[in-house]
Amino acid sequence: MLLCGCLSAQWLETTIALPDTSMPGAMLCNPAAGKLYVANTTSAHGTVDVVDAAANVFVKAIPCGVNPASLCFNSANNKLYAAAAYGTAVTIIDADADTVIKHLAIGTWPGPLVYHAPSNRIYCGSGGDRTIAVIDGAGDSVIHRIAVAHMPDYVCLNPGMNKLYVSIHSQSRVEVIDCAADTICARLTVGETPGMMCYNPMQNRVYVALDVGNDVAVIDCSADTVMRPIPVGVWPTYVCYSPGVNKVFAATTGNNNVGIIDCQTDSVRSYVTIPGTPGAIDVDTIHNRVYCTDRDGGKVVVIDGASDSAIATVTVGAKPDHLYWSAQRQRMYVANSWDQTISVLRDSAAAVAEQRSTPDASRITPGASIVRGVLYLLPSPFPLPLGEGQEVREWNLLDISGRSVMPLESGANDVSRLAPGLYFARLAVGTRRSTTTKVVVTR
């Protein structure tokens, strides 16, 4: 712990002050414009606060609905969507001018949002009418409503198989949506009180926190079957996947730990103790660090994903409830909900990396292809034995959330516009087999 205290100043780069009326929550970046958007979750002053991410200063507040609890970004049309959790609409914002385009009626208690890039659609949970609303990203209208069993709590996209997984907390199930037809294709009983989920593109699995139990449920996405649960500790509330080390990190609020799951064996490798109540958890995909907030103590614990050990404890602000990792800026943003601030954390290794003309080989995951600017795809760059009659489907490049960022073709593929970090080149074979290879994009 003495080492962690000494490192605190090295990790905290700056603190961004927001208006006194703000209670910062969910965050996301517009990487092209260098802006950070922050949901102000106060019921009386529902706004999306805009921050200049280069200067680390507040710019303006955009009015939206009551208690905006979820955000997503439409990269095709450069628009931001904010769901008003205690209202009835999703506010759609022009991310060039940072002005409101419209308030789109969804239904009571709009909830989780996710952007589906292949179809340019946004999926939004509506708790009041127990549906998933499908929004056309070009026309900003609701084109479908998909009925689910009860109030949708979290959503998780599997872009490789074009499916959306929806956790239904009150029904002990996860429902699977076929995004091509926008219909339910599977209903899975996973265990009591399923909540937050994360997707592992390496094994093509979804990990589900059973947040009033002791387990993380595992879904095999190829067959949409539930595998054996993984005991991780009391009340696993938050989960995230770290692609660089192929592990899932589960924050357990009942016994103040982070359980670390090896995704090769789906077993717990070790635990890291959080000083107080663990809250939000997120991963730095470049340096293989995992950040977990201590909500009661106003701190963030930094875990080294390779060694499964805490390497720093950083003092931030009051009630750090949300985290957001920006690979473009190589910063972790911490929303301190009780003191109207955003803490900006930076791995000390990032400063060293910026001074190098070549990647730091000690931080590159073994077996990954390292590219700068152009990714060359040869006819068989990643060997895969094919059976007779198997259909080879196109290669895609996925980000760490499993979202397709671009199709890949034979020859040179320009990846210079992508944020530095870890990606996955994935090839599907037939309907149920696939291979995935790590690709590190550097500057």
Automatic annotation (TrEMBL):
It comes from the Bacteria. Keywords: Signal. Pfam families: YNCE. Coiled coil: none annotated. The keyword NADP does not apply. Residues 31-325 form the YNCE-like beta-propeller domain. The keyword Membrane does not apply. This is YncE family protein. It comes from candidate division WOR-3 bacterium. The lineage of its organism: Bacteria, Bacteria division WOR-3.
